[in-house]
Amino acid sequence: MTTFKDLAQMRRSHRKFTQQEIDSEDVRLILRAALLSPTSKSQRGWQFVVVDNKSDLEKIADAKDLGSQFLKEAPLAIVVLGDPLQNDCWIEDGSIAAISMQYQAEDLGLGSCWIQMRGRGLADGTTADTVIRGVLDIPENLSVLCVVAVGHWADERKPQNEDKLKWENVHLGKYRND
């Protein structure tokens, strides 16, 4: 098993995938990581929709104008949802679950990429939330945070460069701007 130190350095966003299907046990492990992720007050209020239907993936990719077209080529997507009225930390809880899925995917040798949907949409004013809600029959009380694309990566990405870490953004004790 890889150490978390190495896993964190190796995890990169992948936007190019092969058409190879993802093993159902790998999908279960990715979802397990999300379900194990910490939440505010242990509410575990997130919901996840696993999408592998090509037509639905294409419609979700078209839910916003920029940054999601690569989803059309992904074999799988996991839509992360939350109920803003049930949980004031739904965004944070969903974000933690999404990154937990991404680290698990990396550990399994799979690529992933977060696609922001909350607050995004189309030039005509239609929100990504509205589009995805219609495609997946999501109830009105749930909001779409993001979509995590998952697949066998087709693009080689180098590990994060340790020399480019922005240690100047870390402040000890108090914020210092010098």
Could you characterize the architecture of this molecule?
This protein is an alpha+beta fold and 178 residues long. The chain is 31% helix and 15% strand. The protein is built from 5 helices and 4 strands, in the order ααβαβαβαβ. Strands 1-2-4-3 form a 4-stranded antiparallel β-sheet, with helices on both faces. Helix 2 runs antiparallel to helix 4. The chain is globular, with a radius of gyration of 17 Å.
What order do the helices and strands come in, and which of them pair?
Blueprint: H1 4-10, H2 24-36, E1 47-51, H3 54-61, E2 76-82, H4 90-107, E3 111-116, H5 128-136, E4 143-151
Antiparallel strand pairs: 1-2, 2-4, 3-4
Helix pairs in contact: 2-4
Quick tags:
alpha+beta; 4 strands; globular
Question: What is the radius of gyration?
Answer: 17 Å
Low-pLDDT regions: none
Helix content: 25-40%
How many beta-strand segments? 4
Structural class: alpha+beta
**How far do the termini sit from each other?**
41 Å
In short:
The chain is α+β, with helices and mostly antiparallel strands and 178 residues long. The protein has 5 helices and 4 strands; from the N terminus they run ααβαβαβαβ. It is globular, with a radius of gyration of 17 Å.
